[in-house]
Amino acid sequence: MQVAAFCAERAIGLVVIGPEAPLVDGLADSLRAQGVAVFGPSKLAAQLEGSKAFTKELCDRAGIPTAGYVRATSLEQAVAALDKFDVPYVLKADGLAAGKGVVITESRTEAEAALTDMFGGQFGAAGAEVVIEECMVGEEASFFAITDGTNILPFGTAQDHKRVGEGDEGPNTGGMGAYSPAPVLTPELQTRVMEEIIKPTVETMRAEGMAYSGVLYAGLMLTEAGPKLIEYNCRFGDPECQVLMTRLTSDLAKIMLACAQEALDGVEANFSPATAMTVVMAANGYPGTPAKGGAINLGLAEALRDGGAAKVFHAGTAMKDGQLVANGGRVLNVTAKGMSVTEAQKTAYGAVDAIDFPSGFCRRDIGWREVEREGKC
Q1: What is the pTM of this model?
Q2: pLDDT of residue 124
Q3: Per-residue b or e along 313-349, where b marks 16 or more CB atoms closer than 10 Å to that residue's CB
Q4: What is the pLDDT of residues 99-124, one digit of tens each?
Q5: pLDDT tens digits along 16-28
Q6: Which of 155-164, 303-312, 315-324, 339-348 is predicted with the least confidence, judged by mean pLDDT?
Q7: Which residues contact 266 (CB under 8 A, 6 or more apart)?
Q8: Element housing 360 (H / E)
Q9: What residues does 85 pair with on adjacent strands?
Q10: Cα angle at 17 between 11 and 18, to 5 degrees?
Q11: Tens digits of per-residue pLDDT, 254-295?
Q12: Which residues contact 182 (CB under 8 A, 6 or more apart)?
């Protein structure tokens, strides 16, 4: 393993595995076998993100509230399973699909066509198995925790905007923008999430011999019956990472190292009371085939005005003949802070408007739910 050899040669003290694919492939196990401290779960534990069916069955065993589901391994089985659900149908590729493996359809005909595409290779190996779920009703939010397998450190909240279009229309993406904290996750709801979802997950996985170490990112649906788990990610995620880290005032490296050393007991994570918002600037065509090569003229003096209240994180960019160009689907994350969602939104979009990216687009309504709530106060 080249990464493990590299770490051994250079006496690397801590490795942080960001993407989900290396976690699911077992990179953390290889590094730990070489005595390298790792922030990230083992291959077994990373199934929480690598397989939606694995997570659903864990919820069954641990009594974690989630949507009803059927696991299907063939097109015929999946089509028959539709009889158990009402519209809209929620169809999920079981494996990793870069945040795009969820399809919500409004009719039986659409559902059968989507299942045909999934089993036909639309999402590659990720769609070889499909989970069909009941459609939960409520508002989505994200809760983060860091655990060393025993101790659990709450690590903030956020609200993502998964659909590509304004008003939450269109296909799912990896995320078109987010803000943190998410006021909709009240202190009372956060306590319920810890007690009903996070703690049972950590305790059950430890008891079953696959102790989880790293960050647990719980995607939640806030239903009338309370918070229910939609899915887990084994990483901070884009664009939630940007808003969480923009607010974090504690030393992240110390927290990660304590987690890797199974020494989280007594560690604290402190955050600025400010709101942080990030707006994703994507290439035209995303989440389908993005238009690569489009010129970007950042206008940094304008984008980073107000004493650094805005930051521009590069995600899918490259330099070509001295020109910054788009080189992926989600290209830039423009992030700003404010003392309210409304204020952070204003600053973020002011910075977005200073960036010249003709072959790109963004949603203009990131944070709209909370802006509406703030306007009614």
Answers
A1: 0.92
A2: 84
A3: bebbbeeeeeebbbbebbbbbbbbbbebbbbbbebbb
A4: 678 889 999 999 999 999 999 988 88
A5: 999 899 999 999 9
A6: 303-312
A7: none
A8: strand 360-361
A9: none
A10: 140
A11: 999 999 999 999 999 999 999 999 999 999 999 999 999 999
A12: 141, 142, 157, 158, 159, 370
Gap between the Cα atoms of 286 and 284, Å rounded: 6
pLDDT of residue 69: 93
327 neighbors 315 (Cβ within 8 angstroms): no
- Dihedral Cα 154, 158, 162, 168, nearest 10 deg: 140
Q: What is the DSSP string of 212-264?
A: --EEEEEEEEEETTEEEEEEEESS--TTHHHHHHHHB-S-HHHHHHHHHTT--
Token duo for residue 193: 């999430």
> CA-CA-CA-CA torsion for 186, 189, 191, 193, nearest 10 degrees?
-130
CB 149 within 8 A of CB 213: yes
DSSP-based three-state secondary structure for 143: strand
Average pLDDT of the chain?
93
- What is residue 206's three-state secondary structure? helix
CB 270 within 8 A of CB 236: no
